[in-house]
Design a protein that fits this description.
Blueprint: H1 3-13, H2 17-28, E1 35-36, E2 42-44, H3 46-51, H4 54-57, E3 62-64, E4 70-73, H5 78-86, E5 95-104, E6 113-122, H6 127-144, E7 151-156, H7 157-165, H8 171-179, H9 184-195, H10 206-212, H11 217-230, E8 235-236, E9 239-240, H12 241-256, H13 262-272, E10 275-276, H14 278-291, H15 299-316, E11 325-327, E12 340-345, E13 356-360, H16 364-367, E14 376-382, H17 383-389
Parallel strand pairs: 1-5, 7-11
Antiparallel strand pairs: 2-4, 3-4, 5-6, 6-14, 7-12, 8-9, 10-11, 12-13, 13-14
């Protein structure tokens, strides 16, 4: 190793006093205290591979233990902290954690090991207030490093989900579109596929797919799982028989779906094009829903109410709402986000990376083993990017 590399490595490994001050402030808390936690660096790989999204999966460092179980160096801290919470006596109850420690991802523009500071909050039912608190605490990180007036970008996966759910689409296509929201190329592909005439899927399985299309979902699921069991199939690629059956039946439903009307596709694309500050966006979204004659009595109404309530809490925390950049199409390329998402960027464009990023992931805890859904929201801040952009304190 060269002397320059050695010096850079030593500098990267030194504790950053500003980061220590920040995480200590989070641990003390003003509105809510966050217990400091440091989950093991070596983690089971499966949760990240299944739930992390392509952005994390393709950058992971993988290994195996003597029993052949796949492990990884933690590529982020949200899943490790969530697993630690579920294993604690606080599981299912309101609890918050803060952290400062290294994560590991293959990168082209920096070392593979780099520090993050952040917060994960579980079990709070005051959703709008908790969302606003995360953004406010994220802004404390930029202030700690002297990054003045960062650019605030926000989105809402829940709004998109509620909008799609209000449309007249086959349930399988609704699930596919919502699932692919954070994968922009996949979402565009979905819309192209929906615009085409329906197909019968793979010729190899044409008869089976045709027979299953429109059948009772539970009966079809039992049939497919029975057939797989008879064939002696237990798992494929880490998926259980039940998961394989779900996937097969989804393909059947997608193949049988009717062609997407042009006006419905135009409506989806129009929704995804809306942007502005949160107040402007809320007005446009309600006008679009009325114009499109969408059912407002269910999820979409609730999603818009939550959006507007959150904006009120942001304003109450002294955040200039008119300076926030909201976009209906903004997502974070991580699969587990289900609601509010945000990023803080250097307004002077000295760094293209998000300085702070996070959001709501209410569905993650169930997928990690919780018996019931647990509200969850959090964020992580990049210490190296903050230090590069900040003026210091």
């Amino acid at each position: 190793m060269s002397s320059a590399s050695t010096i850079a490595s030593l500098q990267a490994s030194r504790p950053d006093p500003r980061a220590e001050t920040l995480v200590a402030a989070y641990a003390r808390g003003l509105d809510y205290q966050y217990v400091r936690i440091d989950p093991p660096v070596l983690q089971p790989a499966e949760p990240f591979l299944d739930l992390g999204g392509e952005e994390i999966r393709r950058r992971m460092f993988l290994t195996t233990d003597p029993d052949g179980r796949e492990l990884c160096l933690r590529p982020d801290l949200t899943i490790p902290v969530s697993r630690a919470y579920l294993a604690s006596p606080a599981a299912g109850k309101p609890a918050g954690f803060c952290y400062l420690g290294p994560v590991f991802r293959q990168r082209n523009d920096g070392p593979a090991e780099f520090p993050q500071v952040g917060i994960e909050s579980f079990g709070r039912t005051d959703t709008a207030a908790a969302d606003a608190e995360m953004l406010a605490l994220g802004l404390e990180a930029t202030a700690q490093y002297g990054v003045g007036a960062p650019q605030i970008r926000i989105g809402d996966v829940g709004l998109f989900s509620a909008f799609i759910d209000a449309l007249d689409l086959a349930p399988a296509w609704k699930r596919r579109l919502i699932k692919d929201f954070n994968r922009k190329t996949s979402l565009a592909h979905d819309l192209d596929q929906l615009a085409l005439a329906p197909t019968n899927g793979s010729k190899e399985y044409q008869g089976v797919l045709a027979a299953l299309a429109g059948s009772d979902p539970k009966a079809a699921h039992h049939l497919v799982t029975d057939l797989l069991s008879i064939a002696g199939i237990a798992t494929v690629g880490g998926r259980s028989v039940a998961e394989i059956a779900d996937r097969f039946l989804e393909q059947s439903a997608l193949s049988a779906a009717a062609r997407l009307p042009g006006e419905t596709r135009a409506l989806i694309e129009r929704f995804l094009s809306l942007e502005g500050d949160p107040d402007e966006a809320a007005t446009e979204l309600r006008a679009l829903a009325v114009e499109a004659k969408l059912a407002m009595g269910h999820g979409l109404e609730s999603a818009l109410d939550l959006f507007e309530t959150r904006t009120g809490f942001l304003a109450a925390r002294g955040i200039d709402v008119s300076a926030i950049k909201f976009s209906t199409g903004f997502g974070r390329r991580i699969d587990y986000y289900t609601g509010f998402v945000f990023e803080l960027h250097d307004a002077r464009r000295r760094n293209k990376n998000a300085l702070v990023a996070g959001g709501r992931y209410d569905g993650l805890l169930v997928r990690l083993g919780a018996r019931e859904p647990i509200p969850a929201v959090g964020f992580a801040a990049s210490i190296e990017d903050l230090a590069a952009c900040g003026s210091g304190t």
